[in-house]
Every structure is written in structure tokens, then in C-alpha cells.
Amino acid sequence: MFNTPDDWVDDICKAELGASYEYLICRFTTSTPKTLVVGDSHAAQFVYDSISKGANDLALVAVNGCLPFVDLVAINPYEEFSDKASRCRVVMPIVLKVLRDFPSIQQVVFATRGAMYVDGSGYGDVEKKNTYRIIKDPNDLLPENYNRFISGYVASINEILKFGKQVIFVEDVPEIGVEARSCVEDRPIKITDKERPDCIVPRKSFDQRNTNYRHAVGSINAATENRIKIFPAYEYLCDESSCGAGLEDGVSYFYDDDHLSLRGSHYIFGKFSEWLTKASSPSSKN
Q: Residue 116 needs a FRET pair 20 to 30 A away by CA distance; which of 99, 174, 210, 215 works?
């Protein structure tokens, strides 16, 4: 998402943390951010365009492949628990430190993949080998991802609410299940005249894939006494019949099978900004 590890942590973060953390992505677009975005690589994709332009008064704290949980760890069969735990468990302590040290922050936005963690499996041929368990220790052999996804988020959100900050949960963008480059022509980057069906997900398939995830999001909201706002990012990449890599102008909004491109990031964050303005109005209800 960012070019090299050297790009992952900027000077403000280095000064704030006073230490280096492997795999951490920590970026600020201003020294007085209003919004802190937290999560995995899907948090990074959400603000990729803003970070590249130094826009929108943002801070980002993320680690690829990590849910922003206090103690639970999302792990696949190819990862060692001790390595993954040390990587992922830095996120929330850093988030809490940033909140203490940057009182300008008004809202915290959680953005991660959804269905993959909840159901424990990737989507499409490109992710056949992607399986995840959400566990607390290496002897945790029978995890139940659905409930742990809920409990992990509830614990983290409650920590944020103690600061009196608004919490926003991003319901994830669709997974398209194929590499985005197979959906587009190389030059210009546009979907071919005959749209390739493998790059478009039927809405029914998308809804089935995300049923448990969306129920989990509802449970997270209920468990935090409906104190969070939920931004349905997927709605801006779906219509009644399908979800996919291209919209009316035929240009792909995806970088690969599940991450937004720079253009997709610009599009979705723009929709988020519009949504947030309406959701924050006095007459709005969550």
C-alpha cells in the first residue's frame, strides 16, 4: 500500500513513539489531526489518497493482517503466534497514546477486512489458502471467530469511548475475488467493452458472504449501547444486482482482489466525508 517500510512511519510518528515497530504503518497529514483511522491494510487503503496528498486532517495507525484488538490475535496457519502477537498487540497501546497526546482528535475510525476474519476464510480463487483464526494464545485450538470478532472490537471501542471520542466503524468494501488487473486494460486503465463477469460479484453472493459479518457489526453496536456510527462503504461500490471493480465510468477502483486503488481510496473517502457531515448533524440518528 505504501512503497517501502521507510514510507510506513513518518516523522511525527517517530517523534511520538520514540521507538520503531516492525510492520507498523503510522502516518499523519497534520500535527493537529481531527480523525484517527485504525486497523489493518484496509485502514491504510481507506486513507491512501488522503495520506499521499497530506489532506483531510488525518492520522493513521495500522498493521497489515492485524485486527486492532487488545489481546486477541488474527492468525493464519503460516504464521508463528509469538511473532504475530508481538506485531498486532502494539496497535491499541499506540492508539491510546496518540489519543492522549493529540487532543485535537475528535473521532476514531476503525477499518479492517470483515467477512474474512468473521468466517475465517478468504474469497475467490486468489485467496483459497487464506484462513484465519482469532485466538488469545497458541493453545487456543477451538476459536469461534464470530464471537471473538465481536468481543475484540467491543473491548477496543470501549477503550476509545473512555476518551469521549466519537467512534465510527467502516463496514468493509466488497471483495472481488480476482486480481483487479484482470478486470482492466493496461492503457488506459479501463474495463473492456465486454465486461468480464469474474470481476463483478453478484449482489446475492456478496450478501451471502457478508451475512455473518454484518450481523457481527450490529452486535458490536448493540454491545456498545449504540454509541458508534456505522459507515457502509460497500454501498458505494454495489447496486441492486452486483458489486464490483468498476462503476459508471468503467474505471477500476481496486488495486487487487480486496484493496482499493488510489482512485478508489479517493472515491470512498469522499463518500465517507459526505456521509460524516450528514451523520454528525444534530438531526441525524445513528
A: 99
Closest CA to 61 of 88, 30, 87, 27: 27
Rounded Cα distance between 85 and 132, Å, is 14
Rounded alpha-carbon distances, angstroms, from residue 277 to 26, 55, 62, 160, 281: 25, 17, 25, 21, 6
Q: How far apart are CA 123 and CA 270, in angstroms?
A: 27
The sign of the CA dihedral 177, 178, 181, 185 is negative
Closest to 67 measured CA to CA, from 139, 178, 163, 143 = 143
Asked if 230 and 171 count as a contact pair (C-beta separation under 8 A), the reply is: yes
The CB density around residue 227, as the number of other CB atoms within 10 Å, is 14
The pTM for the full model equals 0.90
Q: Which three cell numbers stand for residue 10?
A: 513518518
Q: Is the peptide bond before 188 cis (omega within 30 degrees of 0)?
A: yes
Task: Please classify residue 141 by burial: count the beta carbons closer than 10 Å to its beta carbon, then call 0-12 exposed, 13-18 middle and 19+ buried.
Answer: exposed
C-alpha cell at 109: 475510525
DSSP 111-166: E---HHHHHSB--SGGGTT-B-EEESSTT--S--HHHHHHHHHHHHHHHHHTTT-E
Virtual torsion, Cα 27, 262, 133, 219, nearest 10 deg:
90
